[in-house]
Amino acid sequence: MRSIQQLRLATFSTALIAFAALSSSALAQKKYDTGASDTEIKIGNIMPYSGPASAYGVIGKTEEAYFKMINDNGGIKGRKINFISYDDGYSPPKAVEQVRKLVESDEVLVVFNPLGTPSNTAIQKYLNSKKVPQLFVATGATKWNDPKNFPWTIGWQPSYQSEARIYAKYLMKEKPDAKIAVFYQNDDFGKDYLKGLKDGFGAKASMIIAEESYETTEPSIDSHIVKLKSTGADVFINITTPKFAAQAIKKIAEIEWKPLHIVSNVSASVGGVMKPAGLEASQGVLSAAYAKDGADPQWTNDADFKKWIAFIDKYMPGADKADGALVFGYGVAQTLAKTLEMCGDDLTRENVMKQAASLKDFTPDTLLPGVKINTSATDFAPISQLQMMRFKGEKWDLFGDIISGELTN
Question: What are the residue ranges of helices labelled H in 202-239?
Answer without folding.
Answer: 222-229
